[in-house]
């Protein structure tokens, strides 16, 4: 079993966000009490209906949704930063719809699943999920700054468990050492960047010490929901553990705030490849113009739009999901209109954890006798003729 750095219980997280009720839990580690301090952001996250009512003019649907979320469902937490991006009066605001609960979360539709990616079934060690031969997912914490209403892991995030205890991590590390075929570890959660820096670095260092692990991917929404977390201190600590890839998650250009610009610039300047995974969400970003603006904005900030994910069929998210054809039609509109570096892959993560499948518009019109007729983005038909040689 691995020797793990000893971490004091007080180092578990920066500021505990309760699963429900009021926030404003004090942190002994806060040195500055300003909005620019991520600990302040965590302590002042909105987690109660009263605080939400003060910040936004709520619709009946949102009020009922917030009440339900706090009482029985998937908890509410919105950082002051993310709340500042929400339109105070408009419930259709694309940022607001991602973080403010709706009463429709109580509705389960055909195909909804509690654990859509079968992560529990593919758990090979505590908090370690392996669905592919060469990579594994480490669920480092259950906590996030903002609980996104479409979250694939709504079954577990915000449950109050916090960061993964050392004993569980040790078992996960032993598994990685015993399985050298795993070369890529995705550290996710929850959001691992809500962990205290020393605790996060200790965890990453332990993963990095597994000889067969080549890349570590850090999956975080902090550049979007709490960009104040990307401090120079954090970046200095993480860059010692390169290669680390940052997988972030912007869904709408409205989320590209000035604070996010600073966070992204710090990460990219420090040599972290930053990749973005957007989730296609009904009424939030499910049109080509909205996504074009987002993808162009990301590329300008040196962030690669990597995946456009079909929303997973998480129970209670039917109102946020789109039919598969919607994503294909959007990709067809963006093909040729957007530079290749701004064009993500459209992906369906198949229910049950069977793996990701890329979806493409069908550009093949006919095929036979070594000739394939292709349809271009302008709608022209062009023949591609195969070479006559079949031998190498
Ligand atoms: S930050 Fe990620 S893990 Fe946390 S609620 Fe949002 S989508 Fe889920």
CATH class of the largest domain: Alpha Beta
* Integer average pLDDT: 91
The side-by-side strand order for the widest beta sheet comes to 1-2-3-4-5-6-7-8-9-10
Which class of secondary structure composition applies to the elements? alpha/beta
Number of strands: 13
Helix proportion: 25-40%
Write down the oligomeric state.
single chain
Shape: globular
Write the layout of secondary structure elements.
Blueprint: H1 38-43, H2 49-55, H3 60-71, H4 80-84, H5 96-99, E1 123-125, E2 128-132, E3 135-139, H6 166-178, E4 184-188, H7 197-208, E5 215-219, H8 222-225, H9 232-239, E6 244-248, H10 258-269, E7 274-280, H11 288-300, E8 304-310, H12 324-334, E9 345-350, E10 355-359, E11 364-368, E12 371-375, E13 381-385
Bound molecules: iron/sulfur cluster.
Iron/sulfur cluster binds next to loops.
Give a written overview of the molecule.
The chain is of the alpha/beta class and about 400 residues long. It has 3 domains: about 90 residues, no CATH class; about 240 residues, Alpha-Beta Barrel (TIM Barrel), CATH 3.20.20; about 30 residues, no CATH class. It is about 25% helix and about 15% strand. The radius of gyration is 22 Å and the shape is globular. The N terminus is likely disordered. It binds iron/sulfur cluster (SF4). The site of iron/sulfur cluster has 10 residues, from loops.
């Amino acid at each position: 079993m691995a020797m793990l750095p000893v971490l004091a219980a007080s180092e578990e997280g920066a500021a505990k966000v309760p699963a429900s009720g009021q926030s404003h839990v004090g942190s002994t580690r806060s040195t500055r009490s300003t909005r620019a301090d991520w600990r302040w952001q965590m302590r002042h996250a909105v987690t109660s209906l009263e605080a939400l009512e003060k910040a936004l003019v709520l619709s009946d649907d949102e009020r009922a949704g917030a009440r339900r979320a706090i009482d029985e469902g998937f908890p509410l937490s919105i950082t002051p930063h993310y709340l500042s991006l929400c339109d105070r009066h408009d419930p259709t605001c694309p940022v607001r719809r991602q973080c403010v609960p709706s009463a429709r979360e109580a509705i389960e539709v055909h195909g909804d699943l509690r654990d859509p990616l079968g992560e529990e079934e593919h758990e090979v060690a505590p908090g370690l999920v392996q669905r592919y031969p060469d990579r594994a997912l480490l669920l480092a914490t259950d906590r996030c700054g903002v609980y996104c209403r479409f979250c694939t892991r709504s079954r577990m995030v915000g449950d109050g468990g916090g960061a993964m205890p050392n004993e569980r991590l040790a078992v996960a590390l032993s598994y990685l050492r015993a399985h050298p075929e795993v070369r890529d570890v995705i550290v996710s959660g929850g959001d691992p960047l809500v962990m205290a820096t020393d605790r996060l670095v200790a965890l990453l260092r332990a993963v990095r010490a597994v000889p067969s692990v080549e890349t570590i991917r850090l999956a975080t929404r902090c550049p979007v929901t709490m960009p104040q977390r990307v401090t120079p201190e954090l970046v200095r600590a993480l860059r010692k553990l390169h290669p680390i890839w940052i997988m972030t998650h912007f869904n709408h250009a409205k989320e590209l705030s000035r604070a996010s610009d600073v966070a992204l610039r710090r990460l990219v300047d420090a040599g972290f490849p930053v990749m973005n995974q957007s989730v296609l969400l009904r009424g939030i970003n499910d049109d080509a113009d909205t996504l074009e603006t987002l993808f162009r904005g990301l590329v300008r900030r040196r962030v690669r739009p990597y995946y456009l994910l079909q929303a997973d069929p998480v129970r209670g998210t039917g109102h946020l999901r789109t039919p598969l054809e919607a994503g294909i039609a959007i990709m067809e509109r963006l093909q040729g209109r957007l530079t290749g570096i701004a064009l993500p892959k459209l992906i369906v993560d198949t229910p049950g954890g069977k793996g990701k499948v890329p979806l493409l518009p069908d550009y093949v019109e006919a095929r036979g006798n070594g000739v394939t007729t292709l349809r271009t983005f302008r709608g022209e038909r062009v023949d591609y003729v195969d070479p006559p040689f079949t031998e190498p």
